[in-house]
């Protein structure tokens, strides 16, 4: 994995910090809560292409494990048709650069990826633990780097996460 000290995507408006460098060293995987039907379609296509929201925002919405429960509570309360995807970020081919953003709400959605002098993948991380994966639309995340897990509702109506998402 490349880190913020490596050439960063030009014009992304990112902040490169020691915290992000440490995060990049530690991040091997990011998690994505997904609609089961969409995840099945991505699996059949052989690539994680992203949801409609991802396409609209220009990046794949993901989280560190510690943020997943908050994301589920904020955006997916009561939904029974979900799964959770573990994305092996460390396995992505080509250069992967990490950068920080002030918060998940303050990402401008812009990133230079895939061009000359730019990383193939840019992951913008927020302090809360949200990760925005930027790749060219013609270069989706290969499904071989994704593990899919069920995300059922418990008796209390709260999603039950796999043990390895802790």
SSE diagram, text form:
Blueprint (H helix, E strand, L loop, with lengths): L17 H9 L2 E7 H10 L1 E2 L3 H6 L2 E4 L1 H11 L6 E7 L7 E5 L20 E5 L4 E5 L6 E2 L3 E5 L16
Parallel strand pairs: 5-6
Antiparallel strand pairs: 1-4, 2-8, 3-7, 4-9, 6-7
Protein name: DUF952 domain-containing protein
Organism: Phaeomonas parva
Pfam family, one: DUF952
Order the strands across the largest sheet as they lie in space: 3-7-6-5
Indicate the CATH architecture: Alpha-Beta Barrel
Strand fraction equals: 25-35%
Order of helices and strands: HEHEHEHEEEEEE
DSSP, total strands: 9
Protein name: DUF952 domain-containing protein
Organism: Phaeomonas parva
Pfam family, one: DUF952
What this model shows, in words?
With about 170 residues, this protein is of the alpha+beta class. The protein has one domain (about 20-150): ADP-ribosylation fold (Alpha-Beta Barrel). Helices cover about 20% and strands about 25% of the residues. The chain has four helices and nine strands. It has a four-stranded mixed β-sheet. Strand 6 (about 120-125) and strand 7 (about 130-135) form a beta hairpin. Residues about 1-15 have low confidence and may be disordered.
Brief rundown of the structure:
It comes from Phaeomonas parva. InterPro entries: DUF952. This protein has helices at 18-26, 36-45, 52-57, 65-75; strands at residues 29-35, 47-48, 60-63, 82-88, 96-100, 121-125, 130-134, 141-142, 146-150.
